[in-house]
Amino acid sequence: MDDERKVSVKKMSDEKITTDISFTKEILTKYPKEQRYLLAILQDIQRHYKFLPRKSLSMVQEYFDIPLSRLYSMATFYKALSLKPKGEYVIKICDGTACHLRGSNIIIDEIKKLLDIVPGDTTRDGRFSLETVNCLGSCAAAPVVVINDRFFGKVTPSKLKEIIEEYGGNGDE
Amino acid sequence: MNDMDKKSILVCCGPGCLSDNSDEVLANFKQKLQGQDIDIKAVVKGTGCQGLCEMGPLVRILPQDILYCKVRAADVDEIIEKTIIGNDIVERLLYHDTDSKKGVVSSNQIDFYRGQKKIALRNVGLIDPKNIDDYIAQDGYSALKKVLTQESREYAIDEIERSGLRGRGGAGFPTGIKWRQCAEFEEKPKYVICNGDEGDPGAFMDRSIIEGDPHSVIEGMTICAYAIGANNGFMYIRDEYFLAISNMTHALKQARASGFLGKNILGSGFDFDIEIVRGGGAFVCGESTALIASIEGRVGEPRAKYIHSNEQGLWYKPTVLNNVETWANVPFIINQGAERFGKIGTKKSKGTKVFSLVGKVKNTGLIEVPMGMPLRQIIFDIGGGINGNRKFKAVQTGGPSGGCIPEDHLDINVDFDSLAEAGSMMGSGGMIVMDDRSCMVDVARYYLNFLSGESCGKCIPCREGIKRMLEILNDICCGKGREGDLELLMEIAETVEEASLCGLGKTAPNPVITTLRYFKDEYIAHIKEKRCPAGVCRELTSYHIDQELCRGCGLCSKQCPQDAIAKRDKYFAIDESLCVKCGSCIDTCRFDAIKVGGRISCK
Questions:
Q1: Whole-angstrom Cα distance, residue B410 to residue B380?
Q2: Which residue, of B12, B311, B496, B517, is most buried by count of CB atoms within 10 Å of its CB?
Q3: Which is more confidently placed, B171 or B429?
Q4: Which CATH number fits domain B132-341: 3.40.50.11540, 3.40.50.2300, 3.40.1640.10, 1.20.1250.20?
Q5: Inter-chain residue contact A139 with B239, CB threshold 8 Å
Q6: Given pLDDT bands bounded at 50, 70 and 90, which one contains residue B469?
Q7: Which chain A residues touch B295 with a CB distance below 8 Å?
């Protein structure tokens, strides 16, 4: 990965701490005040901040004039939404049936060994998050690993080691 | 040079090929041909899934119908020089027949394509999904024109009803009856919904249709909307399918611009438009009432269906909800007539079905076959048999709610009723092949683990029942299985099946019930002998190298991520204390020398 992009990602995560709310404001003006747009709004917020910041949720709550609990029920129900910040690199391991049969659980174990995280977790330095997804439709290349939209097919434990090292490996080591 | 000489280069940009960088191949073709001053006329198109994912990235050249496999960006120059400029074939990129080892030029000579019949996928892999003119050139929107300008609302419903089309989302409800019932309600407004929330692990049929031929779905929905009197439609697509959403968004814009959507469609006075709703990543939202709740902006919990969505669906208004594949069938039926469609398939299951054929099968890919084709033909002729010529064990159909079908049932015909009889179901079309290295207890556990995470938690049988069954299966897989476990599993399964609120819960025990029915001996081996016959459940497995069979090549040792395999004398041996039972060695050994044993008592 080039240094320029690294810097921009770093900058974004710094902004995230103070939660730049202008984007949330911008999103809200795009949608009419109807409940049917709630999920779309939350998805847009998630996509921008990589999670749902509390401040943004409060703004959505005010905009729709609904209890905050309803937003939390959405946030915890839908897999695409998350209340915890995600890492710089999101590792998605396909655990669809085809990938499972071809050993995706071994890949998950290997990540645990390499980065000490299980699905749903983020490394302490905030660099890697691990998720499992159901099917990415690339079953011919099973097992499949995706890191920030970059595909890796027919992944084996030894290939995985190389991939993770390419992304800087475990920072603790 | 006349138009007959004009060649089309179709580069597959389906999910399988894209993950293997087919976009680079496409870009390279475009760049090389556009920048050329040589006098060649060729059109380059990025298409939807061409089917044979295993051999991707695929490039098909028409009108000669030449199929090139595993094409890299670096191969583009040679293809242009030999095949596009000259009329020669690049032998090394052809598909090579597994038996004769000879190169096969055209796709219809390949076993994988030969037995197929394409209706829902008729344009997928053939047209550029981003170009509405490509769709129109294949008779696109002519069915809509026919219904709007020459025929009546009644005609459309009649044709669909007579065709015998049944819902392709899983349950197989007759589509025509659904439409007719909804048309008869007078309450307005009415809605039309497309269910594209394909959450089944191991399934990518709907995605491939939306990505590869979005207009056929739009056309199908618009015909239905006209027939039942709806003016608004919703397309619910998984948010993870970003290419599908982008292609569909683009297609909707083009359809509006061409007058096939929007106000006064084709001058008929009929208004209809479609909105995309992005799914939030919840499997249960594939259930119709949960999907409707999700479109309304609520948590996607299903409700009891005392009143069908036909009558009270979206915002309690009459709604027709069909799956992507069902919609894609509609224009074909209107164009070709109900009779022609009805001739394909079996008596009670008409037409074709799209499957994603995956797992331990040689030709992984997207297929469409006439209903009634025997499972054996699908797996061994089209699929080419089992990877590495291992032994077939089971095929799983119907997604997490389906069942596993063993070898002695391989001759059943694939249709709604025969699959249900075998304890499985058609489902949306995932077909997952398993070999002797697949543990059926682990498979049941895998599905239940998936379902326990996806259960919405509204009703107790599903929420608690699945969890308890999963606990028992977890125990069995790690050697803590007890006598009586199987009886208890069956009892819970029956309760969950009977008492759950929606389809997810009602069908959730299927993986357990079918594996218990057909593979009980594997469960018993786990519980009584503390042994996993397939060598998958780690706590119950040990690997060793058969010294008689080992040739000392050392491939396994190179593949081992644990460095657990080392040379002892002439041959290799596995250090049990280091082995994590990943199976890399078994998959690499060409002499079948690595054997699976039972639990080891050390440690």
A1: 10
A2: B12
A3: B429
A4: 3.40.50.11540
A5: no
A6: very high
A7: 36
- H-only helix segments in B260-400: 288-295, 324-336, 338-342, 375-376
**Token pair in block for residue B527:** 């519980």
Asked if A134 and B54 come within 8 Å (Cβ–Cβ), the reply is: no
Whole-angstrom Cα distance, residue A114 to residue A155? Answer: 15
| Distance between CA atoms of residues B298 and A37, nearest Å | 10
Q: With contacts defined as CB-CB under 8 Å, which chain A residues touch B18?
A: 138, 151
Sheet holding B232-238, edge to edge: B273-279, B232-238, B191-196, B319-323
Q: Answer yes or no: is pLDDT of A45 > 90.
A: yes
| Cβ pair A103:B582 closer than 8 A | yes
CB contact under 8 A, B53 and A40: no
| Residue-range domain boundaries for chain B | 3-110, 132-341, 352-435, 440-527, 541-597
Q: Is any Cβ of chain A less than 8 angstroms from the Cβ of B152?
A: no
3-class state of residue A86 by DSSP = coil
- Model pLDDT, residue A7: 41
Enumerate residues 389 to 418 of chain B having a beta carbon within 8 A of any beta carbon in chain A. 396
Residues of chain A neighbouring B281 (CB-CB closer than 8 A): 78-80
- Which CATH superfamily includes the segment(s) B3-110? Glutaredoxin (3.40.30.10)
Q: Which residues of B touch A98 (CB under 8 A)?
A: 201-202, 358-359, 364, 432
Distance CA B126, CA B108 (A): 14
Number of H helices, E strands in chain B: 24, 19
pLDDT of residue A14: 46
Any chain A CB within 8 A of the CB of B463?
no
What would the 3-class secondary structure string for B412-423 be? CECCHHHHHHCC
- Does B77 have pLDDT greater than 90? yes
- Asked if B280 and A78 touch (Cβ cutoff 8 Å), the reply is yes
Could A77 and B208 be called an inter-chain contact, meaning their C-beta atoms sit closer than 8 Å? no
Q: CB-CB: which of B19, B240, B359 is closest to A98?
A: B359
Pick from B16, B300, B360: which is nearest to A140 by CB? B16
The separation between CA B554 and the C-alpha centre of its own chain, rounded to angstroms, equals 38
For the residues B66-87, what does the mean pLDDT come to?
A: 92
- Report pLDDT digits (tens) over A57-100: 999 999 999 999 999 999 999 988 999 888 889 999 988 888 88
Task: Read off the pLDDT of each residue in A103-120 and give the average, rounded to a whole number.
Answer: 90
Q: Distance between CA atoms of B316 and B307, rounded to whole angstroms?
A: 10
Domains and CATH numbers, chain A: 3-77 (no CATH), 89-166 (3.40.30.10)
CATH number of B352-435: 3.10.20.600
CB-CB under 8 Å, A80 with B20: no
CB atoms within 10 A of CB A51: 19
Q: Residue B233 forms beta bridges with which residues? A: B192, B274
CB spacing of A39 vs B297 below 8 angstroms: yes
User: Which positions in chain B touch A97 (Cβ < 8 Å)?
Assistant: 201-202, 358-359, 396, 430, 432, 446
Q: Report whether pLDDT(B34) > 90.
A: no
For residue B230, give Cα distances in angstroms to B15, B79, B186, B287. 33, 49, 11, 22
DSSP 3-state of B92:
helix
ipTM, 2 dp: 0.85
pLDDT digit string (tens) for B534-567? 988 988 988 889 988 988 888 888 888 778 898 8
Q: Span B541-597: which CATH code?
A: 3.30.70.20
